[in-house]
Amino acid sequence: MKNALITGITGQDGSYLAELLLEKGYNVYGIMRRKSVVDYGNVDHIKDKINFIYADMTDVISLINAMIISQADEVYNLAAQSFVATSWEQPIATADINALGVTNMLEAIRTVKPSAHFYQASTSEMFGLVQEIPQKETTPFYPRSPYGVAKLYGHWITKNYRESYNLYACSGILFNHESERRGKEFVTRKITDAVVRIKLGVQDHLELGNMDSKRDWGHSKDYVKAMWLMLQQETPDDYVIATNETRTVREFVEIAFNHVGITVEWQGTGVDEIGIDKTTGKTIVKINPKFFRPAEVDILLGDPTKAETVLGWKREIPFANLVERMVKNDMELVTREIKISKLN
């Protein structure tokens, strides 16, 4: 029976990964930051099956302690300040967690159990101003946000420790992956939550930024399988995990509204563009310039050939089904919320 240590276990990816590892018979340990109120987040339903350890990515001593307690055979570093927009507002905190935090975790592994296999959650945001389409493992990086820059440090320090200390350390360059467990501050969940609220009459419209941004979207449940597969190989390496399909934010909006029976018609251009409910004529989508990034990433499209060939990985949940699952889940959550508010 293997021991696995997951940082960022209460998040979207951490929860799906914890479920996967528990199914495979692992002893699962999860790092949590100490708060005044305990918040198990997305692992609340399996919290009794997880061994929680209080630690912080900015405190190497606490991470060394976590390694001593868990004696982890596999370490999955999913902890991050993961909201790109916030990285401009909190660039130093983003760097502390997303860059130096990775070094702290690697040092903890090197000190306590250098035989452990390490997974680093890298990101397609490192490609930023893309140098080729599609992006693959050999594509040059050009990050366009403090988040992307910090993640690039984490990616390269992982590679450096692999080559300097012969650690089993690898990075998964994951393109956008969403799910029903995604936080509402992310554009995809913001869209599906708003679509449901507009359908149920408790919200008038949805405000977004760049509708023409193109992203390669997959489901988190598929992507955590790739993380696990990376740590089962004979030698460590880095892999792009993506769908090789790209969609605009506008397409995401249209498909989400279609799932609740609303057809969107677009009028105007640029910041004056609006989305109209074809049936009622009401404005349900508006552009708000405050949601534009200081430096935009126009298109991300990943080539997962290496992962499919070497790891035998394949995504199972198509884009349309991803959006449908998110809308359906939000419909249940918002309907329940409305019922409770009426009772009170």
Explain what this protein looks like in three dimensions.
This protein is an alpha/beta fold. It folds into 2 domains: about 5-180 and about 215-245, 3-Layer(aba) Sandwich (Rossmann fold); about 185-215 and about 245-295 and about 320-344, UDP-galactose 4-epimerase, domain 1, CATH 3.90.25. The protein is built from 10 helices and 15 strands. Helix 1 packs across helix 7 (about 220-230), helix 4 (about 90-110) packs parallel to helix 5 and helix 6 (about 185-200) crosses helix 10 (about 320-344). The longest helix has 25 residues, at about 320-344. It is globular, with a radius of gyration of 20 Å. The N and C termini lie far apart (about 50 Å).
List keywords for this structure.
344 residues, alpha/beta, 7-stranded parallel sheet, Rossmann fold, 2 domains
Q: What fold name goes in the CATH topology slot of the largest domain?
A: Rossmann fold
- Helix amount: 25-40%
Overall outline: globular
Amount of beta strand: 15-25%
Main beta sheet, described? 7 strands, parallel
Structural class: alpha/beta
Name the CATH superfamily assignment of the largest domain.
NAD(P)-binding Rossmann-like Domain
